[in-house]
């Protein structure tokens, strides 16, 4: 991971908040390249309101692939573990993610959020193959934060030694950003109100994966990045408190309150 202390708080400001908007939240995952307009607009409203109120003055946003990236990745047989050297496949996946990113940026900027894109395919790499760690340089993100902008990253293709291009999930990016930037809080906004147990109730807190492994299932729509189990595993690796919550938990999270499931 990118945990270099030289990256942390380089401009002397407070550590940022890292927020992920799940692809299943902002798109209709069963319909290729289809936005969930109402959900995306509501999420952008919450971000804009929090920034206007000074509740989240330094914010990095990550969004998932939803029906944009996941659809094309699945069609071409590309995942976090299976890569491709087909330039057309890479272009299809990355192009879809850039289109979704453009929608998210447009909605945020319409509300006065100074959102700018950061595309992982242009920055990141796996030098040791699909099973290796992600090298995600953070210089541009740190500088954008220091200039008062809101960097918006997204799930994407990533150059992978020996495997061409594989998928980097939004959840993995969240972990890299939170670690490398020394985030003070991490939020993952999804279509569910938190991590659910076998009875469908929200688990209030998770501090080890084994305690909830049996309750976590795979996504019920096309998802090449691992579903809720992968989210929990990756968030448990963080030093900062992380929260998984639904749309109703986004505003409270941005205000600094608990929301959904705390993962610590």
UniProtKB/TrEMBL annotation:
Pfam families: AA_kinase. One of its GO terms (cellular component) is cytosol. ATP binds at residues 20-24, 66, 227, 231. GO terms for molecular function: ATP binding; isopentenyl phosphate kinase activity; kinase activity. Its EC number is 2.7.4.26. Substrate binds at residues 65, 70, 170. It comes from the Archaea. Keywords: ATP-binding, Isoprene biosynthesis, Kinase, Nucleotide-binding, Transferase. Residues 17-237 form the Aspartate/glutamate/uridylate kinase domain. It is an enzyme of class 2 (transferase). It catalyses: isopentenyl phosphate + ATP = isopentenyl diphosphate + ADP. InterPro entries: AceGlu_kinase-like_sf (IPR036393), Asp/Glu/Uridylate_kinase (IPR001048), Fosfomycin_R_FomA-type (IPR024192). One of its GO terms (biological process) is terpenoid biosynthetic process. The record marks 29 as: Transition state stabilizer. Catalyzes the phosphorylation of isopentenyl phosphate (IP) to isopentenyl diphosphate (IPP). Functions in an alternate mevalonate (MVA) pathway leading to IPP, a key precursor for the biosynthesis of isoprenoid compounds such as archaeal membrane lipids. PANTHER family: GLUTAMATE 5-KINASE, ISOPENTENYL PHOSPHATE KINASE. Homodimer. Belongs to the isopentenyl phosphate kinase family. This is Isopentenyl phosphate kinase. It comes from Halorubrum californiense DSM 19288.
């Amino acid at each position: 991971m990118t945990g270099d202390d030289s990256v942390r708080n380089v401009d002397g400001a407070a550590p940022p908040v890292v927020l992920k908007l799940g692809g299943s939240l902002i798109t209709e995952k069963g319909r290729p390249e289809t936005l969930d307009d109402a959900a995306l607009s509501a999420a952008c409203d919450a971000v804009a309101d929090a920034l206007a109120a000074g509740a989240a003055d330094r914010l990095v946003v990550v969004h998932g692939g939803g029906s944009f990236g996941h659809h094309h990745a699945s069609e071409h047989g590309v995942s976090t573990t299976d890569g491709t050297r087909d330039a057309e496949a890479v272009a299809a996946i990355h192009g879809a993610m850039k289109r979704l990113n453009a929608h998210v940026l447009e909605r945020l900027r319409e509300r006065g959020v100074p959102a700018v894109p950061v595309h992982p395919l242009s920055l990141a790499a796996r030098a040791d193959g699909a099973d290796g760690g992600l090298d995600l340089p953070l210089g541009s993100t740190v500088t954008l934060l220091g200039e008062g902008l809101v960097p918006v990253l997204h799930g994407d293709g990533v150059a992978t030694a020996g495997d061409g291009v594989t998928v980097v999930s939004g959840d993995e990016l969240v972990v890299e950003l939170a670690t490398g930037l020394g985030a003070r809080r991490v939020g993952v906004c999804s279509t569910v109100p938190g991590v659910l147990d076998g009875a469908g109730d929200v688990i209030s807190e998770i501090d080890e994966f084994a305690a909830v492994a049996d309750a976590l299932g795979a996504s019920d729509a096309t998802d090449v990045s691992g579903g809720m189990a992968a989210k929990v595993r990756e968030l448990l690796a963080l030093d900062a408190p992380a929260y998984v919550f639904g749309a109703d938990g986004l505003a409270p999270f941005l205000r600094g309150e608990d929301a959904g499931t705390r993962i610590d």
